[in-house]
């Protein structure tokens, strides 16, 4: 650790003078009309907007070879790699082609920052604005609208992402460029991130251990923070949303300003919700929750050095619903409830050389989780988790068509108990990983491959009386693994491409799986760990096909995932203090399925959009028993009309969505089948420009038929408690 901090200090002090390059030119449409498109260099987080004549200028560009991305709604995004060297004043004129296809963005979660059309890995990306427009109550609630992603829910306040049937510690979450650590092993532990200040969400579906190490066996949820303002600009915004079902409201206020080199932003948010009401017209007692969130950031961009500091504080107070009791509209929490504090500090630095660069990310995360059961002033359970993680990547000079990255990643983590109850023991976890990956790009073929080695050491202290049955012995174990990945993207013919990816991943067992021995109040069961557990190791094959033209898009994604030593919890015949004992076991497992769909936008009727998709996943143990918490197969159909480019009303849309969840009969031996259901939602949104003020107003409705249903992934299902009923939602956003 000391050596890493010394390296960081040296890099931070490296501010040697260097060349300053500039890029200028003109942007036109395919009809040679000037357009005010955005020119952006993702690696530098630097950009500008062309003026009404289509002219633009970007100054103070360090030496190096960077992707320059040109984009504008209604036009195909264009990307070109340009080499800047020795005080060059480069002139580049760009011509964009009109298209009905949605504007492409640069994918940040994969290492080479390509547009999705250039990326070897298939990554789903969606903006949080689009998620909010659908009527999502929380960020987690919105994520389930992404193809291949679902949600394990505990009411409306707690949601855990499920990617192709895998969840919990098998799905790694990144925020502010660092891995999120917040005791996510628990079924009843939420995401702990507010959507305010999150610009977009990217989902890697499948093993991403090559890029991120342990816990990325099933996939990655990558939360992109909002961008800083473009140089010379200042923006303020205020937004508020109201949800009729929970009588809930959320409000956030943000400001950001940027000079040529220094940039600053800050955002605060508050949300409070009452108990949710089901379609059966009763409220679920103590499903209420509230949340406070603060995000801030500071960035310096020089000609040889870029550094970004971000901080996020989140306080979540979440009621623990146990039964349907008193019917009330109160937002005050009743016992029992959780109170969770998350602090996330990240420092992201880039050192630019003539033909190479070094990226260094350092993060500090502090999670303080408290559960109050009988007294509001005394926490029965209190877990404090401190995490330092680092990520160093060296982007080697490009050799012909080869781009190569070598990296070092690691984590130091301490878990400490301070409550009356012990869920997991005091422990230290140390990770270190070494990786190398290369990308090779030709006109119609892109290849990517990599290899990685990881080591995780877990040292825990003994807990409780050695003479009692709930004694937890000390643990000292090290888990190691080699992982690799290889993939290809092929443009088979015009408008038709395929991606083939083969990847391995691993996950070291977590503290709960290794050491649990006691009542887990949040899951209403007695859990017993297994210190003999081994790594989960998997191999997944992915194939995706995609066709798109100006009228229609088709996609088909298929996967087969073989998991060795899959860890699962299983009930036993033993009863302790009235609770059934569940034991952690291992066996080989397989998961397979995919996502299929189309998007019709017939030209010249670009305002019309018809989207349809189907998702399926099946998970089985080697014994032919089905895995628990596997999402039901589903269809989703959306009819959408868009109107753009009015004089005052800039953008408007209206949508209607019907989601059909099929019967889930493929259940584990301690689950029950779940019946299918259909949910209807609809909404509209318009954006108006009034001088310098931009107003965005939206209305949406979810579960409009007030359907009485229970999701297969609801933790309230064993108690027969229904999911949320009809909700009418209103959103208003003001931007200056």
Q: What is the level 1 CATH name of the largest domain?
A: Mainly Beta
Count of DSSP-assigned helices? 5
- State the end-to-end distance: 44 Å
Averaging pLDDT over every residue, what do you get?
90
Keywords:
736 residues, mainly beta, Immunoglobulin-like, Maltoporin, Chain A, 2 domains, 22-stranded antiparallel barrel, five-stranded mixed beta sheet, 5 helices, globular, disordered N terminus
Summarize the structure.
The protein is mostly beta strands and 736 residues long.
List the helices and strands and how they pair.
Blueprint: H1 2-12, E1 21-29, E2 38-41, E3 46-49, E4 55-61, E5 64-71, E6 78-84, E7 89-91, E8 94-96, E9 123-127, H2 128-133, H3 139-143, E10 149-154, E11 158-163, E12 166-167, E13 171-175, E14 178-179, E15 198-205, H4 209-212, E16 219-225, E17 234-243, E18 248-258, E19 262-273, E20 289-301, E21 305-319, E22 337-352, E23 357-372, E24 381-395, E25 402-417, E26 427-441, E27 445-460, E28 475-493, E29 496-507, H5 511-515, E30 517-520, E31 525-528, E32 536-548, E33 552-576, E34 579-600, E35 608-621, E36 634-644, E37 649-661, E38 677-690, E39 693-702, E40 727-735
Parallel strand pairs: 1-7, 1-8, 13-16, 31-34
Antiparallel strand pairs: 1-4, 2-3, 2-5, 5-6, 9-15, 10-11, 11-12, 13-14, 15-16, 17-18, 17-40, 18-19, 19-20, 20-21, 21-22, 22-23, 23-24, 24-25, 25-26, 26-27, 27-28, 28-29, 29-32, 30-31, 32-33, 33-34, 34-35, 35-36, 36-37, 37-38, 38-39, 39-40
Write up this protein.
This protein has 5 helices and 40 strands. By secondary structure, it is mostly beta strands. It has 2 domains: 99 residues, Carboxypeptidase-like, regulatory domain (Immunoglobulin-like, Sandwich); 525 residues, Maltoporin, Chain A (Beta Barrel), CATH 2.40.170. A hairpin with a 3-residue loop joins strand 10 and strand 11. The longest helix has 11 residues. The two termini are 44 Å apart. The N terminus is likely disordered.
């Amino acid at each position: 650790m000391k050596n890493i901090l010394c390296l960081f200090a040296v890099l931070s002090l490296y501010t040697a003078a260097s060349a300053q390059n500039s890029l200028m030119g003109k942007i036109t449409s395919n009809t040679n009309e000037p357009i005010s498109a955005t020119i952006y260099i993702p690696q530098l987080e630097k950009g500008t907007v062309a003026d009404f004549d289509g002219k633009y200028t970007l100054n103070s560009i360090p030496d190096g070879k960077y992707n320059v991305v040109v984009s504008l709604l209604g036009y195909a995004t264009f990307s070109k790699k340009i080499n800047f060297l020795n005080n060059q004043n480069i002139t580049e004129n760009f011509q964009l082609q009109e298209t009905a296809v949605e504007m492409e963005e640069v994918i940040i979660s994969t290492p080479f920052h390509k547009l999705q059309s250039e990326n070897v890995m298939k990554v789903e990306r969606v903006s949080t604005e689009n998620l909010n427009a659908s009527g999502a109550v929380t960020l987690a609630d919105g994520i389930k609208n992404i193809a291949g992603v679902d949600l394990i829910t505990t009411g409306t306040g707690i949601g855990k992402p499920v990617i192709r049937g895998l969840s919990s510690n098998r799905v790694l979450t990144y925020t502010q460029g660092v891995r999120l650590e917040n005791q996510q092993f628990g079924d009843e532990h939420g995401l702990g991130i507010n959507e305010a200040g999150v610009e977009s969400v990217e989902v890697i579906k499948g093993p991403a251990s090559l890029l991120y190490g342990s816990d990325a066996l099933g996939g990655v949820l990558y939360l992109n923070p909002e961008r800083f303002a473009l140089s010379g600009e200042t923006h303020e915004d205020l937004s508020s949303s109201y949800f009729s079902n929970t009588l809930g409201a959320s409000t956030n206020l943000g400001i950001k300003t940027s000079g040529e080199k220094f940039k600053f932003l800050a955002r605060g948010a508050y949300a409070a919700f009452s108990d949710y009401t089901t379609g059966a017209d009763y409220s679920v007692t103590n499903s209420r929750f509230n949340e406070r969130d603060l995000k801030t950031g500071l960035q310096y961009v020089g000609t040889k050095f870029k550094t970004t500091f971000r901080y996020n504080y989140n306080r979540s107070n979440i009621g623990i619903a146990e039964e349907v009791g008193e019917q009330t509209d109160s937002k005050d929490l009743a016992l029992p409830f959780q109170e969770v504090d998350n602090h996330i500090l990240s420092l992201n630095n880039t050192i630019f050389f003539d033909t190479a660069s070094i990226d260094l990310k350092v993060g500090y995360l502090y999670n303080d989780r408290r559960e109050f059961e009988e007294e509001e002033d005394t926490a029965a359970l209190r877990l404090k988790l401190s995490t330092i993680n680092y990520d160093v990547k060296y982007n080697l000079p490009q050799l012909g068509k080869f781009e190569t990255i070598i990296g070092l990643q690691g984590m130091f983590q301490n878990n400490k108990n301070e409550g009356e109850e012990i869920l997991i023991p005091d422990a230290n976890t140390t990770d270190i990983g070494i990786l190398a990956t290369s990308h090779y790009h030709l006109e119609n073929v892109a290849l990517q491959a990599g290899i990685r080695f990881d080591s995780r050491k877990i040292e825990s202290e003994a807990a409780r009386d050695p003479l009692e049955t709930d004694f937890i012995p000390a643990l000292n174990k090290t888990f190691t693994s080699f992982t690799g990945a290889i993939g290809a993207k092929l443009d088979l013919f015009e408008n038709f491409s395929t991606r083939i990816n083969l990847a391995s991943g691993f996950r070291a067992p977590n503290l709960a799986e290794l050491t649990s021995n006691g009542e887990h109040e949040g899951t209403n069961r007695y859990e017993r760990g297994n210190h003999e557990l081994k790594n989960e190791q998997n191999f997944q094959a992915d194939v995706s096909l995609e066709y798109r033209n100006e009228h229609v898009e088709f996609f088909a994604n298929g996967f087969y995932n073989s998991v060795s030593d899959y860890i699962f919890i299983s009930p036993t015949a033993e009863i302790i203090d009235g609770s059934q004992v569940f034991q952690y076991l291992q066996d080989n497992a397989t998961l397979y399925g995919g996502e299929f769909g189309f998007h019709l936008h017939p030209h010249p009727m670009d305002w019309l959009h018809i989207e349809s998709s189907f998702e399926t996943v099946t998970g089985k143990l080697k014994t032919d028993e089905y895995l628990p918490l596997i999402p039901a197969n589903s269809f989703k159909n959306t009819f959408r009309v868009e109107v753009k480019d009015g004089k005052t009303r800039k953008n408007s849309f209206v949508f209607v969505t019907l989601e059909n969840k099929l019967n889930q009969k493929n259940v584990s031996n301690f689950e029950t089948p779940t019946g299918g259901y259909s949910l209807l939602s609809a909404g509209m949104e318009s954006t108006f420009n009034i001088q310098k003020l931009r107003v965005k107003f939206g209305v949406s409705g979810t579960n409009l038929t007030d359907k009485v249903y229970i999701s297969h992934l609801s933790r309230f299902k064993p108690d027969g408690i229904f999911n949320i009923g009809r909700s009418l939602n209103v959103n208003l956003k003001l931007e200056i």
